[in-house]
Amino acid sequence: MEFPSGYKFTKDHEWVRMEGDVAVVGITEFAQSELGELVFVELPEVGKGVKQHGTMCVVESTKAASDVYSPLSGSVSAVNEALSADPSLINKAPYTEGWMVKLSGVSGDELAGLMSAEDYKKLLGK
Amino acid sequence: MRRTPLYDEHVRLGGKMVEFAGWEMPVQYSGVIPEHVAVRERVGLFDVSHMGEIWVSGPGAEAALESLLCNQVSKLTDGKAQYSAILNDQGGVIDDIIVYRFSRELYLLCVNASNATRDFEWLAGRAPAGVRVANASDEYGQIAVQGPRALELLAPLCKGGGLAGLKPFHFIEQELLGTKLIIARTGYTGEDGVEIFVRADRTVDLWRLLLEHGAGCGVAPCGLGARDSLRLEAAYPLHGHELGEDVSALESGLGWIVKFDKGDFIGRDALLKQRERGVPRKLAGFELDGAGIARQGDTLHAGGEQVGVVTSGTKTPTVNKALGMALIRPDLAAPGTKVSALVRGREIPAHVVALPFYSRRKA
């Protein structure tokens, strides 16, 4: 299982990668393997404000719908439209093509409170 | 939590184990979608050992079942199976079952795992003296072999040729692995195939034999996830979704197995009244016209009011549409009727479609 360095993680299995001031957000490889093949993703509208730990997206497998929580507070500046056509990008490439949302206006304090790859790996007992 | 005889096999094959009806069962191995496709195109193996088996025997068995079940047991002959249901006095569905007739005095009832104890107690408590009701659920494992290549997989294993002439909803007893199997041409996927009852302590041997001999047919072990998406495409009702004690057999689309003319049976009076007055809701299929998936408990709306409740819904692999079944106001149940589904506060346009969503091409 992959734990890319330079990413930050949450105990709810989301990840954050900073691109300048913008936080790119997705779910981890562990999360996608637990959820199974995704068949639908409900993305937020661009411009929407999200709170840390608040519901940001909903991902659905054939079996169930699951909430994805925002790892940071901020404003949605972009969403990954490619997921509408192919939600399985999250399964195939959770840390790259399967990104979900970009957030702007995020707080450095909240970011500093997230887990490192090492800590997240320990959380999963790997 | 209970485990079937195949628990260790599932773990060894990488099955993801989840709780279902008090049992620890594989929800998937390789993934719901590839397993679903394997059954539609080749053949899949399902552990359905959690299902219950109840024997009903004795000189009065036929008459007893005629009054305890809604379908007409006397239509059965030896070696035939029949879909039926146990109803309560209100005509609600305690369970949907398959009845196998071995003789006029010996029947096997295959019942849902979650209802096995309730069914047994209900039947045993109402069977007349001289009719024996025995819960044999712990004595049997059950494996479903489903898909267009299911019989091709089995044929070389079954000596005697009984399998070749086995018609849908018929069963044979077959010697294999030094034990006697009950092989029934039934299933819950919308594909051809069989369900095999096997002694609990020989279930692992049979599972391994089927996997090994099925390699050439592209056999795949399949979990409950694919079982659910397959049965939904075929529009087979599931207890706890389409069926329940608070939904009458007429409402939930089981009218075709309710035989009013056979004489009295539990639930008949209530259903007769409901048939005269008309059902207040009816099971119908729907398809979403916008992005999203409606699931059990989501509501359907038309003309500014709630007109139905979703009983099952998903985006299914073969049909590749967000679809489902719902209990809806009868005047809106005709295919083509426009409704909307309310999903997490968002209205998604939808329309009623004819069931089933999927039917296999008949050979």
Descriptive notes:
- The complex is a heterodimer of chains A (126) and B (363).
- Chain A has 126 residues and is α+β, with helices and mostly antiparallel strands.
- Chain A has one domain: RNA polymerase II/Efflux pump adaptor protein, barrel-sandwich hybrid domain (OB fold (Dihydrolipoamide Acetyltransferase, E2P), Beta Barrel), CATH 2.40.50.100.
- Chain A has five helices and nine strands; from the N terminus they run βββαβββββααβαα.
- Chain A has helices at residues 29-35, 82-85, 89-92, 108-112, 117-123; strands at residues 8-9, 14-19, 22-27, 38-42, 49-50, 55-61, 65-69, 74-79, 101-104.
- Chain A is globular and about 35 Å long.
- With 363 residues, chain B is α+β, with helices and mostly antiparallel strands.
- Among the domains of chain B are: 7-48 and 138-233, Probable tRNA modification gtpase trme, domain 1 (Gyrase A, domain 2, 2-Layer Sandwich), CATH 3.30.1360.120; 281-353, Beta Barrel (Elongation Factor Tu (Ef-tu), domain 3), CATH 2.40.30.
- Chain B has helices at residues 7-12, 32-41, 61-68, 116-126, 150-154, 203-213, 224-233, 268-277, and strands at 16-20, 23-28, 43-47, 52-57, 81-87, 93-103, 106-111, 132-135, 140-146, 171-176, 179-184, 193-199, 219-222, 282-288, 299-302, 305-315, 322-328, 338-343, 346-353.
- The N and C termini of chain B lie far apart (42 Å).
- The mean pLDDT of chain B is 96.
- The chains are: A alpha+beta (126), B alpha+beta (363).
- At the A-B interface, β4 and β6 of A face α2 and α7 of B.
